[in-house]
Amino acid sequence: MNKKFVKRWAIGIGVVLAYAIMWNVAQVDLIRLWQGIPRMLNWLSRSWPPDITEVSTFLLRALETISIATLGTTVAAICALPLAFLAARNIHSNRLVYQITRSILNILRGTDSFVFALILVAAVGLGPFAGMLGVAIHTTGSMAKMFAEWMENSDQTSLEALHASGVSKSKTIVYALLPNAWPNFTSIALYFWEFNVRASTVLGIVGAGGIGMELKNSMDLLNFSRLFMILLIIWGMVTIIDQLSASLQRRLQ
Amino acid sequence: MILRAEQIRKSYHNEKSVLSNVNLTIEQGQFVALLGPSGSGKTTLLRCLTLLEKPSAGRIYFNETELLNLSAKQTVEVRRKWAYIGQRTSLIRRKSALNNVLAGRLNEMPLWKVILGNFPDADKEKALQALERVGLKDMAHQRADRLSGGQQQRVAIARAIVQEAVVIYADEPVASLDPESAKRVLADLRMLCEETGTTILCSLHQVDLAETYATRIVGLSDGKIALDIPARLLTEEEKDRIYTREEQTNGDSRTKTTTS
After folding, report:
1. Do A180 and B103 touch (CB under 8 A)?
2. Closest by alpha carbon to A175, among B117, B120, B165, B158?
3. Where does a domain end: B165, B184, B203?
4. Domain region containing B200
5. Across the interface, do B91 and A167 touch by the CB < 8 Å criterion?
6. DSSP assignment of A136-153, as one string?
7. Contact B50/A164, CB-based, under 8 Å?
8. Does B96 touch chain A (CB under 8 A)?
9. What are B88-143's pLDDT values in tens digits?
10. Cα(B144)–Cα(B152) distance, rounded to whole angstroms?
11. Is A158 within 8 Å of B91 when comparing Cβ atoms?
12. Rounded to an integer, what distance in angstroms lies between the CA atom of residue B162 and that of residue A80?
C-alpha cells in the first residue's frame, strides 16, 4: 500500500513539475495578456464595418484555397490507397515492407502541409501549386495511416471465412475487403478535405496561394476592416464545406 | 475417415495447455457437435483443425494427407474443400445475400473476373438454388447486413453449398441467436449433412441442440475429450463429465480468455 502511495505522489509531482517547466519555456505571461486587451479591443472597434471594396478578389482567393485543399486531398487519396495496403499488417506478412512504409508515412505525416509548402515554394515558385503539392504530400501520409489502421481493425471474420476456404488474398481484398472499405475510406477522405480547407487558409503566408496571402497583407498594413472581411469569408467558406461534407457523409451510410 | 487429429496439444506462451492430447477421428457424413463450457478449448480445436492456428504438437490428417507440413500452396488446395462459419457473421456486410453466396465460387474464378464481378450465369443459378435450399431465395437481393443473425448464418451455409465444401467447420454458429433461429440454422446444417453427405463439425454450448441435430457428440472439458458418443439424450452423469469442471475453473479467467 505504501509503495503504491509513494508512486502516486511521485507521478503527481512529476506532472506538476513538467507543466511548470513548460509554463516557463512558453513564457506564459498573464500580465502581458492583460495589457494587450485594450489594443485588441481597439482593433476590434476599427474592424467595423468590414471593408467590402475587395470582396470579389477575396472570393477568388477563397476559391483558390478550396481548389488547393480539394485537389490536394484528391491526389493524396489516390496515393494513399496503395500505400495503405503496404502499411497494413493483416494484408501482407513482409515485416520489412511494413516498417519502411510506416516510416515513410510517419515522415510525411509528421511534417505539416505548411512546412512542405514552404519548401515547395522555393522549388516550384510562388503560388497555389506549391500549396496544393504541400497539402497532397502531408495528407498522403496521414490518410494512408488511417486507411491502414481501418484495414487492420476492420471486421476480420468475413476475411477469415474466405481465407479458411482457400480463397486467395488478392481475391479476398477485391471481393470482401474493398466493398466494406469504400464508405469508410470516403468518409476518411471527406474528413481530411474539411481539415485541409481550414489548414489551407494559412498557406498564403508562405506565398503558397489562397486567401492567407490577403490575410497577411491586411495584418501587415494593420487594416482591420479589410482583415475582418477576409475572416467573414473564411468562416462562410468553412461552414459551407463542413455542411457539404456532412451531407455527403450522411449519404454514405 | 475424412479427418483425424492425433495428440493435438496447444498452449500459448508456455501457459497451461488449452488443448492437451486431443485425439479425434471423424468419418465422412457425420454431424459432430463439439460441446463444452466456454474455456474448454472448442474454438482453439476448430482453429487448429482449420489451420488458422498451428498446434503446439500433434498431427492432423485430411483424407490421409498430413496437414501440418504442407506448403502454403498445398494448404490453399486443401482448404478449398472446407467452409468455415464463425460465431459472428462471416458475410461481406455490404454485399447482397446472392453475392455472398457467390463468394463460394471465387476459387473457380480468375482474378480479373473477380475484379469485374462477372460470375457465369450457371454460378448465379447455383447460388439461387442454394439460397432456396436454406429457404432464403426471396432475400437474394437483400444486403447482408439487413438480414437477421439467423438468416446471415443460413446465407453462409448456402455459400458452403455453392462452394461444394466437403467439410463445414462452424464455431458456435448459433451462440448469438434466439432459440428459433438457432434451430433453423442447425436444421439446415443437418439437411446438408443428410442430403449431400457433407461432414460437419460444429461447436455448440447448448446440450439440447446437440442432442437434436448432431449425429455424434464430442464433449470437451478443460482441453481434453471427456465424452464421445453417438448423438442421443445425454445422461446427467455425461453432462457432468463435460460441465462440472467449469465450476472449478470458473474463477480462472486465463483459460477463458485464451479460447474465446
Report:
1. no
2. B117
3. B165
4. 1-81+167-260
5. no
6. HHHHHHHHHHHHHHHHHH
7. yes
8. no
9. 888 998 899 999 999 999 998 999 999 888 899 999 999 999 999 999 999 999 99
10. 7
11. yes
12. 36
Query: Which grid coordinates belong to B171?
Result: 464455431
Instruction: Output the nine-digit C-alpha cell for B213.
Output: 441435430
Please name the residue that has the C-alpha cell 441467436. Answer: B177
Residue A252: its chain B contacts at CB < 8 A? Answer: none
Q: Do B90 and A157 touch (CB under 8 A)?
A: yes
In 3-state terms chain A splits into helix, strand, coil percentages (rounded to 5) of: 85, 0, 15
Do B176 and B216 have their domain in common?
Answer: yes
* Side-chain half-sphere CA neighbours of A30 within 13 A: 1
B249 residue type, one letter: T
> Cell triple for residue B250?
470458473
Residue type, A225: S
Last residue of a domain, one of B165, B197, B224: B165
**Looking at CA atoms only, how far is residue B211 from chain A in angstroms?**
27
> Shortest Cα distance from A248 to chain B (angstroms)?
18
* Percent of chain A scoring above 90 in pLDDT: 69
CB-based contacts of A67, cutoff 8 Å, min separation 6: A128, A132
Output the nine-digit C-alpha cell for A8: 502516486
Which residues are within 8 A (CB) of A124 and not within 5 positions of it... i.e. 6 or more apart?
A130, A133
CB A121 within 8 A of CB A203: no
For residue B60 the three cell numbers come to: 492432423
**B103 and B135 fall within a common domain:** yes
Q: Are A13 and A20 in contact (CB under 8 A)?
A: no
How many domains, chain B? 2
CA distance B47 to chain A (A): 10
Quick one: B172 and B145 in the same domain? no
Q: What is the pLDDT of residue B146?
A: 93
Nearest residue to B21 via CA among B73, B63, B57: B57
Could you identify the residue written with the cell 457523409? A249
Distance CA B69, CA B252 (A): 34
C-alpha cell at position A198: 481550414
CA–CA distance, B250 with B10 (Å, rounded to integer):
21
Partner-chain residue, chosen from B86, B92, B107, that has the shortest CB–CB distance to A180: B92
pLDDT in tens, B209-247: 999 999 999 999 888 888 898 887 888 888 888 887 544
**Quick one: B157 and B174 in the same domain?**
no
